[in-house]
Amino acid sequence: MKRIYMDNNATTPLSPEVLEAMLPFMKGVFGNASSIHSFGQEAAKALEAARKQVADLIGAEPKEIVFTSGGTEADNLAIRGVLEANPGKRHVVTSRIEHHAVLHTLKGLEKQGIEVTYVGVDSHGLVDPVEVAAAAGSGTALVTIMTANNETGSVQPIAEIAAALSGKGAVFHTDAVQALGKIPLDAGKLGVQLASFSSHKIHGPKGIGALFVSRGTRIKPIITGGHHERNMRAGTENVPAIVGFGKACAIAAADLEAESARLAALRDRLQKGILKIVQDVKLNGHPSRRLPNTLNLSFAFVEGESLLLNLDLKGIAVSTGSACSSGDLKPSHVLMSMGLSAEQAHGSLRFSLGRENTGEDVEKTIKTVAEVVEKVRAMSPLSKGARKNG
Amino acid sequence: MSSGTVAVAMSGGIDSTAAAAMLLERGHALIGLTLRTFPCDPSAPDESIQACCGSEDIEVAKAAAAAMGFPHYVLEGADLFRSSVVEYAHAEYLRGRTPNPCSVCNRDVRFGFMLARALQIGAGRLATGHHARVDEVSGRFRILKGRDGRKDQSYFLGFLPQESLSNALFPVGEITKDEARRILGRLDLPNKDRAESQDLCFRKLMPSWGGSPCRLKDAAGKDVGQGGPIQGYTVGMRRGLGLGGRGAPLYVLSIDAGSGVVTVGPEEALFRGALFASGVNWVSIPEPGRPIACDVKIRYRHPGAAATVATIGQGRVRVDFTSPQRAVAPGQAAAFYDGDVLLGAGFIDS
User: Fold this and answer.
1) B213-265 domain in CATH 3.40.50.10420?
2) Which residues of chain A have pLDDT under 70?
3) pLDDT of residue B226
C-alpha cells in the first residue's frame, strides 16, 4: 500500500539534498566550532554559512540568528529571556490560539506571578491588531502572537500588530514556525523583534531551530554555560543539524514562490473535492489569509479521531485539530477560540500538504475521505448510543 | 478490513498484552487501542494525576504493539472517564455507598465507547485482557469464570449487555496468569516483567473530598464519638474508627449519608441473611420467571455463597442467603453464578 503523508504541519520528511549537505559533518568534519585550531575553524565556517542561509530566508542579518534545539526552545528563550531581561515588567500579551510551546510556558509563568492577557480571535482565527495593542501597557514586557496557526493555517496580521504596538515599549515576538518556507517572511517588514523557527517543518533535520533576535532587543539567555551563539545560547553547536537547517532554508528560499503556488493549487483541489462530495463539512480558518498547504475541515456527526484512525488504516496520514495537544482533555483550543462548538471541534481533521504530495494523492484522499466519512456516519447511531451510557 | 480484524483494549499490563499475542497467533489482524483516562493539562491542580494510569502505561502498550507488529492508537478518553467513572464513584461515596468503578468502566467505557470506536475503524470485535470467558448458547451470549480461578474477573463484567458481549473476546480467560506471563516472556515483549496493575486509578482523579465530620453511633442509636467525613467509611471496615479500647472490636455496620451517621457494632452484627439489588442485568440467562438457586458474590474477593435470587420487578431482586453473609456493602455488585456461569448482576441497595 502506497502511503500518503498529509501531516506536514507536524513534521516533514528530510530532503535528500539536506541529508547530503549534512553527511560530511557526521563523518569527517567533527570539530568544535569554538576551537581555535583548523578543525574548529572548519566547523565554524560551516556554522556561519548556515547562519547566513537561515538569515537570508527571513531577510535578517546573520548575527540576528540564534540557533536553538528547535521551535519550542526558541519560544521559551523569547518568553523567559525577555522577562528575565526586563524585571520591572511583569505582563505578557498573547492570543488564545498560540502553540502550546507558548501557552504552556506562559501558564507556568503565571504561577510565578507573571500576568498574562490572552486576546481572542474572530471566527477565522485572526486576532485584531487594535485589541492586541490595547492590551499592552507600560508594564508589558512582551507581546507574542504567532505568524500562522498550525491547525488552521490562518495568517495573522503581524505587521499591523507591530505598527499598532509602536511606542508601547514591549518586545514583539512571533512564533513563525509554521510560516517559515510557506509564505514570504521579512523580519524587517514584519516589524518584530523576535521570531521562532524550526528546521523540521521545512524538510530539515529535527532538533534544530532558531530565534531571530533583532539587534538591540533586551533579552537574556535561558541556557547558560558558555559564550556560544553570542552569549545567547550556551552549548556546543550541533553543526550537522545546523548545516542541514541552513540547506533546508536555502532550498525553501529558492522554491518558495513556485512550491507555495503548487501546494495552494493542490490544497484548493482537495478542499473543493471534499466539499463537493461530502455533505455537512465546514472549513475552519480564513479562506484566503491562510498557509498554502493547510486545510482544516469539520465533519458534522462524526469524530475526527474516528476519521483519522480509519484514514491511517487506509494509509493516509492526517491529524485531528488537537494533534499537537494530544492528551488534552478539551477539544482543540484553537477551534474553540474561533467559536466552534465542542462537536464541531471534535469533528475536525487537518490536512497539511507538502513537497511530496501529488495530484494523484489529492484525488485518492478525496475519495477515501468520502468513503470513510460515509461509513463512520452510518455507524454513528451506535457511537451516540454508547456515549449516552457514558 | 475483514471481520477477522480485532481491536484489543491494551492497558500496558500483562493480561491485555497476552490477549493480543494470543489473537495474533490465531491469525487475527489486530488494532491496539489504549484509552487515555487522565487529563494531560499542565495547569491541572494536582500533578499526581499524571502518574495515574499514566503515560507510561500508554507507552508500554504502544511498545508492545510495535514489538508484535500491529497498529496502535491512543484514544482520548479523559472527559468520558471522568464523567462516566470518576463522577459515578465520587457520587456513590458521598451517598455513603461503596462504588464499583470497574464494572461501570467495563460497561460504559471499554464496551461502550471503545467498542463503538473499534467497530467504526473496521474491527469486528473488541478483546480485553479480562480473566473471563464468553460463549454463545442458542443465541444467548454467556459469561463464564476465567480458567484461572484465583484471577477470575467475571464479577466486573456482569453489567455488559448482550450486544456488547456479541462483540467481546476474552482470550486470557482460557489460560492462567502464569501462562499469560510466560507468553510475554516467550515473545520477549517489553512489558514481560511488569507488576500487576491495581485498577484503582480512578481514585487519583477524584475531586478533593471536603465534607463535615460524621457521628458514630451504636446499633441502639447511642452516640459513641465523632468520625471523619462520611465518604471515608465502608461497610465492614474496622481500622481507623478511632474507637479502640472498648473491648470487642467495632465495625462499620451501615452508613446514612443523609443524616451523617455511621452505625458501628460488633462483628456478629455485620452478618445479613438477605439483600436487595437494583439495576439488575441478566447475562447468561433471560430474566427468570421464578426464584433461582445460585451462588452470589457480594464483592470481588468474596468466594460466593449459596442463595435464592428472586426478581421483584423494576430490575430489582431479593437475594436470600442460605447462611448469613458478612459485610453486605451497598453500591457493590452482587453477581449471581451457576457454577462457572455468570447469570447476572445487580447493584446492592441494602
Assistant:
1) no
2) 321-330, 381-390
3) 86
Q: Strand B341-348 vs strand B140-145: parallel, antiparallel, or unpaired?
A: antiparallel
Q: What residues of chain B have any CB closer than 8 angstroms to a CB in chain A?
A: 1, 31, 36, 39-43, 55, 71, 73-76, 78-80, 82-84, 107-109, 112-113, 115-117, 119-122
The CA radius of gyration of chain A, in Å to the nearest whole number, is: 22
Per residue in B32-78, pLDDT (tens digit) is 999 988 766 555 444 444 444 456 788 899 999 999 999 999 998 88
What value of ipTM does the predicted structure carry?
0.77
pLDDT digits (tens, 9 = 90+) for A177-202: 999 999 999 998 999 999 999 999 99
**What is the structure's pLDDT at B199?**
53
Q: What is the pLDDT of residues B198-215, one digit of tens each?
A: 555 666 667 666 778 888
Among the partner residues A305, A376, A386, nearest to B115 by beta-carbon distance:
A386
Mean of per-residue pLDDT scores for chain A = 93
Mark residue A169 as left, alpha or beta (left: phi above 0; alpha: psi -120 to 50; beta: remaining).
left
Say how many CA atoms lie within 13 Å of B132 toward its Cβ.
Answer: 23
**Active site positions of B, annotated:** 105, 201
B271-348 CATH pick, 3.40.50.150, 2.40.30.10, 3.40.980.10, 3.30.70.2740: 2.40.30.10
Q: Would the pLDDT of B134 be above 90?
A: yes
Total Cβ atoms within 10 A of residue B140: 15
Which of the residues A324, A335, A338, A376 is marked catalytic?
A324
Distance (Å, rounded) from C-alpha A127 to C-alpha A144? 12
pLDDT of residue A322: 54
Distance between A304 CA and the closest CA of chain B, angstroms: 11
Partner-chain residue, chosen from B43, B73, B75, that has the shortest CB–CB distance to A107: B43
| CB of A368 less than 8 A from some CB of B | no
Q: List chain B domain ranges.
A: 5-205, 213-265, 271-348
C-alpha cell at A147: 505568524
Nearest to A305 among B31, B76, B79 (CB): B76
**Alpha-carbon dihedral angle through residues A225, A227, A232, A235, given to the nearest 10 degrees:** -50
Give the mean pLDDT of B95-112.
93
Specify whether A324 is catalytic: yes
Predicted local confidence at residue A181, as pLDDT: 96
B252 touches B321 (CB < 8 A): no
Type and span of the H or E element at B204 = helix B202-205
- Tens digits of per-residue pLDDT, B8-19? 999 899 999 999
Query: pTM to 2 decimals?
Result: 0.85
Q: In this predicted structure, which of A168-182, A316-330, B220-234, B320-334 has the lowest mean pLDDT?
A: A316-330
Lowest-pLDDT choice from A19-23, A339-343, B227-231, B345-349: B227-231
Residue B196: DSSP 8-state: P
CA B136 centroid distance within chain: 23
Contacts of B107 (CB under 8 A, 6+ apart): A389, B159, B160, B161, B164
The grid coordinates listed for A271 are 478542499
Beta-strand pair B125-127/B72-76: unpaired
Nearest-Cα distance to chain A for B53, in Å, is 13
What does each C-alpha distance from B293 to A156, A235, B271, B306, B307 come to in angstroms? 72, 76, 20, 7, 6
Angle between helices A304-313 and A359-389 (to 10 degrees): 130
Ordered by where they begin, the domains of chain A are 4-10+256-389 (3.90.1150.10), 16-251 (3.40.640.10)
**CB within 8 A of B47, min separation 6: which ones?**
none
Of B31, B51, B29, B26, the closest CA to residue B40 belongs to B51
